[in-house]
């Protein structure tokens, strides 16, 4: 298990075994500008990421962070910044979202996406949409359901034929899966055939092609937002809608109205597992506890891994990035400037999860791209005690 260095104290904390990372870091408050602020945390999915594509996942997460931070520096609020991060993730041919998404059983690309603004609590989502290069832009118009393509084009979002969204890699995977399915049909029929088809698809993509992308953002005013986008399961039936388009399952964002913390969550993994447990909303609620590290650990264990809704599953596959923040007054106060304390963590039960993060004061994004593999989902834990980031906001 790789631990992250505490740059303030030059100490490396001990980490329990698990499929996740986190970091504690104190930022020198005196070095930070007082006019801009904000923070972004992105993920390129929980699943299996081959070593051959590790650099590409790392680069796209860095670009997504930079794009969101650029919007924050320009004065954008959290919802606009998180959408910008998702567009960058969708445009990469290596992620299972937007360009290069998995092809369904009919050889078409259908995408899911959603976005939630913690300030207004507005939520927008699209399910099984085709012919749109950036489904998160449609979700950002707060649209859901059938007819999304025509609505999007009518509101200025350019169409993109499905064949242009397919990449050499996704087409190659589709053809291999089709050959495997044809072979399975000759060997078996009925229930066993359906099961083999699903297993074939999952084997083709390591732990299943679960690399839904997502991001969470807090702006200089303390508003939070979250978004998620996915091309769905490889060889899915046309019209299948995954967690990325389901309320409370793919993403969640909520400013601190009557709660001590504002929270933002984005998930990845097996859509059915995340939908049945409503993991995004469950994690958001858990983060209102004082100890975020302990709260997320318990939520992943009790609300996901050991959830009664997943009792019949052999493996529970999922990952989550979470962010929470609160306003705090410096002691002693300096020019009556309030700071925003941001804490973020991530956890997953899959073999890997690519994560990047960046603040408005950072010159470049920081990355974590892989962790030690555990075969047992119950080993997913969060090294203590989380990553703290402090910036100035007027």
TrEMBL record:
Annotated site residue numbers, Cleavage: 211-212
Disordered: annotated span: 1-24, 185-207
Entry GO CC: cytosol
Regions of compositional bias (Polar residues) in chain numbering: 1-22
GO biological process: protein maturation; proteolysis
Alphabetical keyword list: Hydrolase, Protease, Zymogen
Active site: 212
Name of the protein: Threonine aspartase 1
Organism: Pogonophryne albipinna
